[in-house]
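Entry 14. Structure prediction run on the chain below.
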Amino acid sequence: MTSFLWKKVSEKEKEDIRKQAKGIMDDFSGKLSKVKGEMKEPLIERDEGERKESGEECCDDFSREIMFRNAPNTLKGTSKNEDFIIGERKGW
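Output returned:
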C-alpha cells in the first residue's frame, strides 16, 4: 500500500515542480499587492456571551442515568435502549 504513496521524482520533474510553485506564488503575491487598503479583522459584539440553559439536568456528578434521561425521545431516527443512544444516520 505504501508504494502508492511515494513516487521517485527525477531531477527534471523536481525542477518543473519548483517552476510551477514559484509561478503560483509570484502570481498570488502580484494579485495580493494590488489589494488596496488595510484588511481588518471583523469585530463581532454580542449582548450575551453565553447560551441560555434549556432546563436539562446538570450536576457535578455526571452519571449515565442523567445522560439517558436527557436524551431526546422524539427526534426522527433517534431511540434509546438500556445501553445505547441510537442516533439517526445520514439523515442530514
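The longest strand covers residues 79-80.
Filed with the rest of this week's runs.
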